[in-house]
Structure formats: structure tokens, C-alpha cells
Write a structure and sequence with these properties.
five-stranded antiparallel beta sheet; Sulfite Oxidase, Chain A, domain 2; Immunoglobulin-like; 3 domains; sulfite oxidase activity; about 20% strand; globular; heme binding; OxRdtase_Mopterin-bd_sf; Molybdopterin-dependent oxidoreductase; alpha+beta; 19 strands; transmembrane helix
Length: about 500
């Protein structure tokens, strides 16, 4: 059949134009990554934040409870696709203009891309990283289209392939350059005095000594600390520009700079965090040694008031969380982790630690403490989740080993917030009988010898413990574990899903 109207031919001619436009969009993202790295200056970051903000609560909760980490990855992938489409549309318009005047097409693409990137990131210099590459793609593609050797090629094949090769090379270069500009995971030392550094070293050494050394079981100071955030791209905050303000119902608003914070006498504290959205036997529970100052020391300087006795903590990534002001009296403002400065993904320059509460309360990249006059809802409460603690007692079973003598060995961690762990019990006969596991020695509250009886515990309160249990068993046996907190209360037996108040139940596993 003959297409006398030439409709098919015209449609086919649109294929290379659309492909070049898509490549222009991809080049914008590559250039942006090269100039900003995986930070807030990367144009994908605000797009992903917007998608997260407008996503229905039901979809967010589905992503957390069903998809897990994959949900956030899919949202980031969607942000990439949107970015390619947005900047690709500018390339499409620029390509149309360049058919008449190549220079005008490039300038048109450059201006539209720069204005959009600037609007998204608020960084005029970094915006050129997303603007120059698509303009270059428009010029390069038009050059290939007009070059004599390209004439006769079916449907602009050389135009597309040549442009794709150029964008591919740019992407590789951008990845290497952007990875360097993103910054290191840990941002260096924190300028502790000799005695403060020695105390941190001693505490870390004690944690190493008191770890049970079970194969396959993470030590008492976690090798890798989990991270959960509302955005995939973490803020990249400059400590020289960072401040923490205490606002709201206060007698006098105060502002603390990073230099002021780190010049205070530092203290160290072991503290465990557990994610409210993890599975019952998941691995989003970790422990670290944190360095900082008591949070209340800063808040009380403002002489807080208000009628609701509550505060809202806000972060530079737009996150916010509300809880009782009394919880801040034992809170900690941390700027160090395991003897070094806070890693970027854990809240550099500073984060809050609120003992006994779910991990989401421990706001990272903290910038404001607002004393409220009436109760408000935090970020996750608005989406139906429980915010403030107390955390639910849990004993997790993560390590299963075959011992040389033929017996089985099971081990894990147990955590009950500030209540502490009194015991972990193990059943290997279908919960007919229970036996106590061996617990790791509690981590100390301070370095040096335990203090004399002063009415205070010599151990860290908000800290997990390891447990281990050896038994005569066979492959296929089911082991159930449960913990008893420091108040003598047993871990809840009833199984409950993580939404909305965190998972509960006894942990069982076939070994």
C-alpha cells in the first residue's frame, strides 16, 4: 500500500527529532550531576522532593510497607524521567528553532534550561551545569544533520547515533566528576581536645571488647548505620553557614553557630536508633557513639514557655517532627559519630537524639527548635504514622551458626529504648520452654571506672545489647526469641504490622 499523503514518512522523520530531544534532556541531568554531585544542587533532587510531597499518603505508606527501599528508588527513577522530559522539551523546542537559525536554537535551549535549573535549585552558577549540555546537543545534532556526509542517511540515523555517542561520553565524565564533588561520607575530624578524643577512643574500645564476637553478628557499634530519609538526595550543608535557632514561645530567640556548638565541652553517648517502618526482624536498627552537647542546655537559654509543652524540630531538607518538650531534657545535639564528624547522610553538621523514641524523631540536619503554643503534627504523623515513642521492645535473630561440636548457635540484638534489656529468652521446642541467652555486658555511660552509687546508672540507657544462645539442634528447627525489658515487661507476643506504630511480636526463624 502506498502512502500517497506521506504521513508515514513525516512521522518517521520525527523519530530522530524526539531522540535528540531525549538526549538533550539526559545531557542536562548529566551536566547538573557533574557540577553539583548528588546534592541539593542536582536538578533531580528538588524534582524528587516535589514528587514525594504530592504523592498520596496511601501511596507513600504502600511504598514503605510493601516496597521498602525499592519504593524510594522508584521515586528517584521517576524524578530522573521527569527531569529528562522537562529538559528534553527545551531541546525539542531548540531543535525546531535551530532548523532556521542554529545559534538561536542553542541560545533558546540554554536560557530555558538555565532558568528552570535555577528555579529548581536556587543556585545560579550550578544551573549552568544543566543548561550548557542541552544547548550543545542542539548545536551538535544540527551540525550532523546539515553535514554533507549525513545526507541520504535514513531518518537521521547519524544525527541520533552521533549525538548519543557524545551524550554517553559526557555521562561517563559527569559521573566521575560529580562523584568527587559530592563529598566524602565522613567529613573529617571534629577538633576534640586531647582528653575528649581519648574518652571517645576509650568508649569505642570498650564497645569492641564487650561485643560477643559472634560470626555474622554486627558488633555493639554498628559497622554500617542504616539511613532513612524523606528524600533520596541528602542535604549538603556548609557548617560555616549552618545555624540552629530556638524560636516560638520563648522569652528570647537564640541562634547557635557550628563554631559555638563545637567550642562547648563535648560529651559522648552511646545511643541506638530503630526505624518505625522496618520489618519485625529487619536490620534498620543500629548503634553508635555520638559526640555533642545536651540539647536542653541550648533550649533553656531561650527560656521556653507555651501552653502545650511541646516543640517542633525542623531540618534543612524540609523535614519536621513534634514531640513533648520534656523529651528534650534528656536529648542530645550530636555533631560527631564514632570519633569523627557526623557523616553527611546522618545529619552533618548536627542532629538531634531523643532517647527512647523511634528513629524518625531524631531529626537530622537540624536547623530550628520551635517551642509551640499548641500541639501540631509532624511529617509522618500527617501521613498516619506514630511519631513519638516509646519504642517497642524487640529481640532480633540475625546470626545462625553451626558450631564445631555439632551444636547450633543463634544470636542477635535486643533493644527496649531507655527501659534497657534485662534478659533475652530463647525457645527451640515450639515455645513450650524458654531458656535465657547470654547477654553482652552493657555499654558504659562514660569512660573510666563506673561511678559510685549516686542514684544514676553507670550504663548507657538508650542502648541495645547482643545476645547469643547455643543448643543441640538440627537443620530445620524453629527458634523463637523474645526480650524482657529493664522494667520486667516481656516483649509483646501479638504480631502487628509496622504501620502505623511500628512492628511487634516474637521473632521466629527456621535454622
Amino acid at each position: 500500500m502506498v502512502d500517497e499523503s506521506g504521513t508515514v514518512e513525516r512521522l518517521l522523520r520525527l523519530v530522530p527529532t524526539g531522540a535528540v530531544a531525549a538526549l538533550a534532556g539526559a545531557s542536562a541531568l548529566a551536566g547538573s550531576y557533574a557540577s553539583a554531585g548528588f546534592t541539593g544542587g542536582f536538578v533531580v533532587a528538588p524534582i524528587e522532593s516535589f514528587l514525594t510531597a504530592v504523592m498520596p499518603d496511601a501511596a507513600v505508606n504502600f511504598a514503605i510497607t510493601v516496597l521498602g527501599d525499592l519504593g524510594q528508588s522508584l521515586n528517584l527513577l521517576m524524578a530522573f524521567a521527569v527531569g529528562v522530559a522537562v529538559f528534553g522539551s527545551f531541546g525539542l523546542l531548540g531543535t525546531a528553532v535551530s532548523r532556521r537559525t542554529p545559534a538561536a536554537g542553542a541560545i533558546f535551549t540554554l536560557l530555558l534550561s538555565w532558568a528552570t535549573a535555577y528555579g529548581l535549585t536556587g543556585a545560579p552558577a550550578l544551573a549552568f551545569g544543566a543548561a550548557v549540555p542541552p544547548a550543545g546537543v542542539v548545536v551538535f545534532a544540527e551540525f550532523l544533520r546539515r553535514y554533507p556526509e549525513t545526507k541520504g542517511e535514513p531518518h537521521g540515523r547519524r544525527e541520533v547515533l552521533g549525538t548519543a555517542a557524545g551524550v554517553g561520553s559526557l555521562s561517563v565524565f559527569s559521573y566521575l566528576l560529580g562523584s568527587r564533588s559530592t563529598g566524602t561520607e565522613t567529613l573529617g575530624e571534629i577538633g576534640l581536645s586531647t582528653s575528649e578524643a581519648k574518652e571517645a577512643e576509650e568508649l569505642l574500645s570498650k564497645a569492641d571488647e564487650r561485643s560477643l564476637g559472634v560470626e555474622g553478628l554486627e558488633p555493639l557499634v554498628s559497622d554500617g548505620f542504616y539511613g532513612v530519609d524523606i528524600n533520596s538526595v541528602d542535604p549538603n550543608v556548609d557548617e560555616s553557614e549552618w545555624t540552629l535557632t530556638v524560636t516560638g514561645e520563648v522569652e528570647e530567640e537564640i541562634t547557635v553557630t557550628y563554631d559555638e556548638l563545637t567550642s562547648k565541652e563535648a560529651s559522648h553517648r552511646f545511643s541506638t536508633l530503630r526505624c518505625v517502618g522496618e520489618t519485625l526482624n529487619g536490620r534498620k536498627m543500629d548503634n553508635a557513639l555520638w559526640t555533642g552537647v545536651p540539647l536542653w542546655e541550648i533550649i533553656e537559654r531561650a527560656n521556653p514557655g507555651g501552653d502545650c509543652d511541646c516543640v517542633m524540630l525542623r531540618a534543612s531538607d524540609g523535614y519536621y517532627e513534634e514531640f513533648p518538650i520534656d523529651a528534650t531534657r534528656d536529648g542530645f545535639l550530636a555533631y560527631g559519630m564514632n570519633g569523627d564528624a557526623l557523616p553527611r547522610k546522618h545529619g552533618y553538621p548536627a542532629r538531634a537524639l531523643i532517647p527512647g523514641h523511634w528513629g524518625e524523631i531524631n531529626v537530622k540536619w537540624i536547623t530550628e527548635i520551635e517551642v509551640l503554643d499548641e500541639e501540631a503534627t509532624g511529617y509522618w504523623e500527617e501521613r498516619g504514622w506514630q511519631g513519638t515513642g516509646p519504642v517497642i521492645t524487640v529481640a532480633k535473630l540475625h546470626a545462625v551458626n553451626d558450631l564445631p561440636d555439632g551444636r547450633k548457635q543463634v544470636a542477635g540484638h535486643a533493644y527496649a529504648g531507655t527501659r534497657g534489656i534485662e534478659a533475652v529468652e530463647v525457645s527451640t521446642d515450639g515455645e513450650e520452654t524458654w531458656n535465657e541467652a547470654t547477654l553482652s555486658e552493657p555499654l558504659p555511660e562514660t569512660a573510666g571506672e563506673p561511678p559510685e552509687a549516686t542514684g544514676q546508672t553507670p550504663y548507657g540507657e538508650d542502648v541495645w545489647r547482643q545476645w547469643v544462645y547455643d543448643f543441640d539442634g538440627e537443620d530445620g528447627d524453629t527458634v523463637t526469641v523474645r526480650a524482657r525489658d529493664g522494667n520486667g515487661n516481656l516483649q509483646p507476643e501479638e504480631e502487628r504490622d509496622r504501620f502505623p506504630s511500628g512492628p511487634s511480636g516474637w521473632v521466629s526463624r527456621e535454622v
